[in-house]
Each structure stands twice: as structure tokens, then as C-alpha cells.
Amino acid sequence: MGGMKSEPIAAATVFRAVMTAAAWRCQCTGVCGQPHAKSDGRCPREHDGYADKHGGPIRLLAAPADPHTPEREAVALPARALRAWCPGCHAAARKPAPAPDALQGGLFDL
Ligand SMILES: [Zn+2]
Ligand SMILES: [Zn+2]
After folding, report:
1. Domain definitions of the chain by residue range
2. Minimum-distance ligand to the CA of 87?
3. To 10 degrees, the CA torsion angle through 19, 27, 84, 20?
4. Proximal ligand: closest to the CA of 58
């Protein structure tokens, strides 16, 4: 247990376990806000695949199934609690959801 050294989200062995389970394909099923309807409801991006003709190869991430898990908790998660994410889905899924119910949640206490 070290101090504040920076670590990748998942170590290499965990990463491989997650990617193998995911068949090296993004496991997003719409959390990013896109229904991925053209690809059976699951993101079609694959590790080392190309998002488009101009971009570089995609590097999938092994990150918590719940993308809002804080990073210091995420690093301690076992492979089964992680999912394969393409960077686009992961970034979109981590954005705080627009919260229409903030209005009903006491945020504006009149
Ligand atoms: Zn994706
Ligand atoms: Zn997605």
C-alpha cells in the first residue's frame, strides 16, 4: 500500500481479464447517452479498431461498471466489477447526468 503514486485504472492482468471477458469490445449499452441501436444496443468499438478513417486506433479502458465510481475506489475493484469502455463512451458516461429532478430534490428550496 503506497502513497499517492499514480496508477492506471487497472493493472495489466486485470485489464486483460476484463478485455477477454468483453471480447475486446466496448461494453457500453447506452450509459453514454447513445443507444447504440445500429449495433445490437452495444457499442461497436473494439480495441485497436478505428472509430473513423482519420482517428488513431481505439484503446479501450477497463473501468468500473458504474462510471461514477471514484478513482481511488476503482483501482481496488476486481476484474468482475469492471467493464471494457471505449474512451468516448466512458467520458460521456462519466459526465454528470442532466438532472431534471434537481428541481424536485430540494435544491431550490423556496
Ligand atoms: Zn463505446
Ligand atoms: Zn456508449
Report:
1. 12-96
2. 1
3. -10
4. 1
